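Researcher: Structure for this, please.
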Amino acid sequence: MSLRADGERANGAPARPESSADRTSPRPTHPAGPAGGGRAWLVWGVGVAVYFLAMFHRNGLGVAALEAQERFGVGPALLAVLPMLQLVVYVALQVPAGLLADRIGPRRSLLMGMAAMAFGVVLFAVAPNAPVAIAGRLFIGLGDALTFLNVIRLAALWFPRSRYALVSALTGVTGGLGQIASVAPLSAALERVGWTPAFLGAGALTVLMTLLVVLVVRDRPAGTPAATGHPRISVAASIMEALRTRGPRVGMAYHAVAMSPYTMLALLWGYPFLVEGMGLGPGTAALLLTVLGAGTLWMSPLLGALAGRWPGIRFPFAAVFAPVLTLGWLLLTLWPGGAPAGVVVAVLAVSATGAVVAPALSFDFARDGMPAHRTGVASGLVNMSGFSVTLIGTVLAGAILETAPEPRGMTDFQLAFLPMTAMMLAATCALLVLVLRRPR
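Model: Predicted structure, token format:
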């Protein structure tokens, strides 16, 4: 079956499961597809600036952790609930966010997300107690959930199919920069002007960015017909269509393997693992995580450009990278007495690479075999798969470490990371079956 560049069959009907010939053959281009160009980069640039701001809000609590404990009179255990609840909201809303993107378009979805984030930040800024602060973070999580999928939806609507992997990769890199950029300015603002003015300033910036979305962002290039001519299918049918299609399933499996382990470490357990498990000094541990996170950002655009130019490399790369990463985590968790420092650093470096390059391929896979006007649900499922594994692995690691006696050592962390390793192994097996098995 021949696929058009926008993921639809040539006759406009919904795509059926692809044949074996579709697996590695280059994607054909189609003259009717979006041309890209300067206007496309401007629209995507505003959208990705929204994503940058969302990542700033998502990670800002880490910078304000000590001030939050003092302001709300809570301990570390209750404070840890704030980012975890926000992540739960993010994961739970991925498929609804994808459905919303398909039904009302990325522009209106982004505006809804920006409104929720702005309200959440302001509420968090003036919160007199922990329950109100939690409500604020939940609204931030709601807005965050509506951001990423709609930015890559803009990429699908404004850029040629051959550019989608690159633009997805650049979107992921921008999010990583947003994580890094949240530290210095928010820390300085908290120190100089205090809690409420600092977060109200972030809320005002969010409102200004909302106005920019209103002025600049459009769902599709001028003259491009909307998808209103396509028959609308039910929510359940949209989800089942994505789950039956090979491309989104490959994207889900790859995202679960590549993105999850290092995200778990960056979210919570990397620093304690390096300090308590490896015996590194606090400064050395922080520097190592920063270098690994920032030093691998360049790999994602490179892989995205290569995948756009030669789409046939995507499946072999995924089929090699996922087992290598999983093997590294098996060594990390099963090495008697703990793996040598060199092996640990190598596994962390490969993990950081996986987290960085995950968007370049995961969301490109999600478009394979899907009608262009229904890719939001597929992207939502892919994003949910990776973050669900991250959330489960993070929570189970915490539960296991909670039972470990003080001081915790390498063996305790090896045991705590076994659930993540098991999920990676299962996802890798699923990925290899999908990539290597040819339909009868």
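Researcher: Any notable elements?
Model: The chain has a mean pLDDT of 82. The first helix runs from residue 38 to 63.
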